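Revision sheet: structure tokens.
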Amino acid sequence: MSQTEGAEKPGTRAEMREETERLILDAAERVFADSGFGGATMQAIAEACALPKANLHYYFSSKEKLYRQVVERIFTVWLEAADSFETSASPEVALRRYITRKMQLSREYRHGSKVWANEVMHGAPIIQDYLEITLRDWTESRVAVIRRWVDAGDIQPVDPRWLLYMIWATTQHYADFAHQIETLNNGPMSDAQWQEATGTVCAIILRGIGLDAGDAVAET
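Predicted:
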């Protein structure tokens, strides 16, 4: 066997570790969403990802560190979605893109949304620093943009914070109350229903601040 054949392929171990961490985080997200931080156990998470508990502790030495990593991953995904709110775009485009992306996240990361909601409802003991720094900075930057729109007469007068809170509450409802929605819907929402729901949310919010929502419904 040549030296090349016998050598380990570059990145193999790193890729395996990354994949294992992803499986652990996916399982932990589900368990934390169902049981909360207090009710979740490392044993339950190990069983959810089909790993021995010892292996789980190899990657994450404590439940607190694992939970923190789950929350950090959720927040990273949401910050990436926040980039869809382009400060240079028109109100119609910026808000439509942001609302649409938030609806997509509620469908794709429903467990993560529940983890975040549970954390905040309990006073954010783990992620308070995220709320006070990163989320506050992002919110203040978007508040300034919305105020410019109001001052320029591009949208009807509205307190930017109430507008943002309405968008968050409406879009995240589809994740945090997914079981209730699926019960009333007699099953999970189809692709067509998600598209219709997204268009409806965009239309109601945009029309509420005096924007033409026709394109918002058509493009979602």
